[in-house]
Design brief:
By secondary structure, this protein is of the alpha/beta class. Helices cover about 50% and strands about 10% of the residues. Helix 11 links the parallel strand 4 and strand 5. The two termini are about 25 Å apart. The relative contact order is 0.18.
């Protein structure tokens, strides 16, 4: 019997749309491509999720590698990008309904420290029984270690857990399933698909949302 619902954050609770974020900062095609290729795909981006570099250090390293004409863009983008992500309030309402049904709510997410600090006071986190963030643990999904941190810290049985994640590489939920945690990939930011997943595993909501 499922007792615990584990939520990813990006593209589940928080709408992480790279194009929408980029468009907030520039309309220039060259600058858009720079952000995609030189910031989102930079080694510092992963190090931020792992909590192994500060935001200011990431700015300095990316600026060092690239033409100085991008310095202002790099600085503004890395200081502000995470604020351009709306909350999926309809999915938060699903989580609240699950909490009312006495399911335990957990978070397992890859996220930089400054992003978590920005969102940590939203309503969703107030209903959580436990939260594991990659930058706090220095390990990220799909590594089994971060799943084990969640299971061990909160004394969870894998077979009693349902994992909700949009990872399009398939690796995160494959790791989860290998460890005995139930679930499958959901479509990004899709309330409909999350409800479908809950129904597949006989997790019922009181009434339609």
């Amino acid at each position: 019997m499922i007792k615990n619902i584990i939520f990813d954050l990006g593209n589940v609770i928080i709408n992480y749309n790279q194009d929408h974020i980029i468009n907030h900062f520039t309309i220039d095609a060259d600058e858009k491509n720079f952000i995609k290729e030189k910031i989102f795909k930079s080694p510092e981006w992963e190090l931020l999720d792992l909590g192994k570099i500060t935001n200011n250090a990431a700015i300095a390293e990316i600026q060092k590698r690239n033409d100085e004409k991008y310095n202002k863009l790099i600085n503004i983008f890395l200081l502000e990008w995470y604020k351009i992500q709306p909350i999926n309030e309809d999915i938060v309402e699903i989580a609240k309904k699950l909490k009312e049904r006495n399911y335990n709510i957990y978070v397992l997410s890859n996220m930089a420290k400054q992003t978590y600090e920005y969102f940590k006071d939203i309503d969703f986190f107030k209903i959580c029984n436990g939260i594991v963030i990659s930058s706090h643990e220095n390990v990220k999904k799909p590594d089994e270690k971060i799943f084990n941190i969640l299971l061990t810290r909160y004394k969870l049985k894998p077979a009693e857990c349902l994992f909700i994640d949009d990872d399009d590489t398939t690796r995160s939920y494959e790791t989860a399933n290998k460890m005995g945690i139930l679930g499958r990939r959901v479509k990004p930011n899709s309330k409909k698909d999350i409800i479908k997943l809950l129904n597949e595993f006989d997790v019922k909501l009181d009434k339609p949302i």
